[in-house]
Predict the 3D structure of the following.
Amino acid sequence: MVGSFLTAAIVTTNVVNSWELYLLYRHRLAHQTNVIPEAFRADVEPEAFRKTQEYSMDKIWFSMVCQVKNVVESTASLLALPTVWYGVETVARQSGFFPAGLTRGGFTHAYLFTLFADVTSTLLELPFSYYRTFVLEERHGFNKTTKKEFVKDTVKSFFLRAAVLDPLVVGLTTGVVKVFGEKFPLYLFGAAATLTAAATYVFPALIQPLFNKFTPLPEGTLKSNVEALAKSLKFPLTKLFEVDGSRRSAHSNAYFYGFFNNKRIVLYDTLVKQLEEKQILAVLCHEFGHWKHNHTSIMFVVGMLQLLGFCYGAQVALFHQQLYTDFGFVAGDQSAVMGFQLFSVVFFEPFSTLFGYLMSCVSRKFEFQADAFAVSMGFGQELRTALYKMQDENKSSITPDWLFAALHYSHPPLVERLDALEKEIKKSE
């Protein structure tokens, strides 16, 4: 008999995924227009608009296929959880690799279960990832990844998860719950928050270089002007890198990372090639606007509050026997790792979806503020031109569905962004 918690999880998962599928359907309909928005008619050629629409339509269609896959995969995984959990234990016991015995729900059992789930997920995702890279992106001229690079990336990503992330997460959850029992939330939050903060340094310094080459920006006017701009704003710039983004894709980007007085800026080589020097400075001035308004710190604090809420919410579910038996687990079996997973699928994921919609709205407000800061620094026209160029080079959507954009876009639709820019420029004149 299917338990009420399992029923709730299946219904909620399918409702959320169906809603997301509907949003994608709306988004695709919005891109079937052949009419260039008025704001772009003077700057976007009809042929370029046609290619942009085709690229957006292909991406949305592929996202819809992936969404259907997610519905099937999520439902199947919910129904199979106890079978896989006990199956992994049985195979491990019969393998002979654990002569000292295997504790059900202990670190080894939980890690092997997590590893099996990771392998399964990777294999199921592989054909979709291959299609995205070598069919969709290739068709529209963005893919630069070789098949050898694709295989290397997939293998490296998996082994990093299997050797570092999975044992770290499993060890942390099982260890903290075992030591502190029902008093675990604050201790788990403290440990997880510390690791999250450390990851902001470890990931760009140790992990990203395994996939891309980061080189100091060459000496020249661009470097000296970036450093001068940072100095004028008292931005604590310590290093300035150029990354070989063109190694995998023609898409462009720029970002900074680091806490306190240790900030580093990364420019994609594609961005350096696509934009003129003043336009790059305008894009970076926008990024400095995020720093000036403490947007990164605010988002980090919000993320920590969400993590704290997750820890305390999981406390209720983790020791709730009915939750386990409703999913088909044997009475008395209460594992920390499985408890967190059940809490996630029944309670946290629906909340996270709604919270994500809210944070998209907050993020868009921050983008407007960062744009306004760039205008106040005298880079309004250069930022406007840079946005047009980046839209053209990346074939970014200019006819999004309003509802999809409202719930999912972290950046304002380009029409709205340019309109706000024009108003800020006029105010500054």
